[in-house]
Prior knowledge:
The chain is built from three helices and 18 strands. By secondary structure, it is mainly β. It is globular and about 45 Å long.
Amino acid sequence: MTSNPYSTRTHEAMKEVLLEPEAPAPETFYHMLRGGPEKGNVTIWEPGRAGREYIKTLGHYHTWDFKETYRILAGEGIALFQKRASAEDEALEDVRVVHVKAGDVLEMPIGYGHILVNTGSGLLVTIDDSPSNDPSKPHADYEPIRRMHGMAYYIVEDNGVPALMRNSNYTSIAKEDLGGLSVIG
Length: 185
Ligand SMILES: [Fe+2]
C-alpha cells in the first residue's frame, strides 16, 4: 500500500479521454493530496486547455453508493454528471451540467459518473470527503470513461466561452440539463 498522499494526473495519462489527445496541453492536468474522509482530499486543476478542451479530471463512477461533497475553494469550473441507463455504457439516462465557483458546495449525485473542468484563468481548487483510495477496496471506477474516451460531452472553448461537443461514442441520452451551454459541432 502506498503511503505517498501526493499524486498528479499528467497529459500523457489523460490522452485516452481527450477530444484532441495530441493537441498542445499543460504537462500536468491536476494535482491531488489524499487525506481521506477525515482530513479531506484536495484537488488542484491547472488552468488552460488541451487543444480546445478545458483542463479536466479523468472521470469515474463510484463502485458503491456513498455521498461525496466537494467544496470549491478557489477558481471556477463546470461539473458534468452522467447516469448510465444500464450496465451498458453507451446509453445514458441523464446528463447534467453545473457551473461552480469559489464558495460553492457541490454534491455528487449518487450513481452518476462525474468530471470537473477548470474554465477559469487561474487554478481551480477543491476539497472533498471521498473515501481514501484503499487499493483493496477502490471507490472509483475509471474504466467505463476510458473505454468511451471521455464523458458524454467535451467542454471546449468557443469564442472565449465554454461550450459542449458531443462524444459520439454514446448512442443516446434520454434526458439532459446542459446548464445553458450551447452544443457545437
Ligand atoms: Fe467521485
